[in-house]
Write a structure and sequence with these properties.
Elements lengths: L1 H23 L14 H11 L3 H9 L1
Amino acid sequence: MEIVLGFLFAAFVFWLLARILQKAGFDPLWMLVMVIPVVNVIMVWVFAFADWPNLQKSKREI
């Protein structure tokens, strides 16, 4: 039972990550980086401080 709940929780987290990345303008497959230890922490910082493509589009339209 715990394995099923763990799998469902992991699937939910990956779905959330994919949605966030997609809304920011990145490829949703970047969520797979979160599986790799140490790289996942680095990539959170990279995405946090990177220029998001969708924000750049909205600035150009104004």
